[in-house]
Structures are given as structure tokens and as C-alpha cells.
Amino acid sequence: IPKRDWSSDVCSSDLLEGLPAEQPQAEGALWLSHEPMRPPSADLLNVCGHLHPVALLGRSGDRLRLPCFALDRSRAQLQLPAFGRLTGGHPCDPALQRGVIAEQQVLALP
Predict the structure, then answer these.
(1) From CA 25, how far away is CA 101, in angstroms rounded?
(2) How far apart are CA 102 and CA 83, in angstroms?
(3) Integer Cα distance of 66 and 100 in angstroms
(4) What is the largest CA-CA distance in the chain?
(5) Distances from the Cα of 20 to the Cα of 34, 58, 71, angstroms
(6) Could you give phi then psi for residue 78, rounded to 5 degrees?
(7) How do the pLDDT tens digits run along the chain, 110 residues long?
(8) CB 37 within 8 A of CB 45
């Protein structure tokens, strides 16, 4: 990997090019994968990253964008948040069961 200035807020996808991705795998009742996917068995919950959901709270100028956990029961999927400044994040469907981290605990959102 070429030498980079890690103090910059700009990150290029070429940093990850060529790195192998872990294969999806079962761990107890969980199906672990990077990208969201249907588990191979109906009794497994897919725990995944990639989308890194965020909850949008508030209105117009007074709005918070917080990393959140998103549980989609219809797809048996738990999407994990990311907390770095370079991770982006996709707005989460408010119809999903969402939880944000505050005061060192996960708080459910309405």
C-alpha cells in the first residue's frame, strides 16, 4: 500500500482494492456478512455492515444524523452502524426497528 496522509478526511477506494473480503459465515444463530444478504436458513439472522445506516432526527435546520442499528424483521437482517468520519452512512427507513447509542447504551427510536 502506498504511503498516505491519514490526517486527511478524504479517503480513496483504491486503498481497499485487492484486499480479500471475508466470506459470509454462520456463528450460532447469526449469519455474518459484509453486504446484506438473505441467510441460507430461515432460522439465521443476517448481521451485516456495508450500508451503515443512520437515523435522521429532527426537522430542517435542527436535524441530527446519528449512526444506528437497523433491524429488518421481514428480511431477518440486522444492519450495523459505523462511527468513523469517513464511513458515510445511508438514511435508514424509519419503519425499521432502529437503535442509536447514547449515554453508553443503545436507545430504541420510535
Answers:
(1) 27
(2) 13
(3) 7
(4) 45
(5) 12, 39, 27
(6) -115, 115
(7) 444 444 333 444 555 566 677 899 999 999 999 999 999 999 999 999 888 999 999 887 888 889 999 999 999 999 999 887 777 788 999 999 999 988 889 999 98
(8) no
Q: Please, is 79 exposed, middle or buried when counting C-beta atoms within 10 Å of its C-beta (0-12, 13-18, 19+)?
A: buried
C-alpha cell at 39: 441467510
Q: Looking at the chain, how many residues does it have?
A: 110
HEC-encoded secondary structure of 20-88 = CCCCCEEECCEEEECCCCCCCCCCCEEEECCCCEEEEEEECCEEEEEEEEEEEHHHCEEECCCCCCCCC
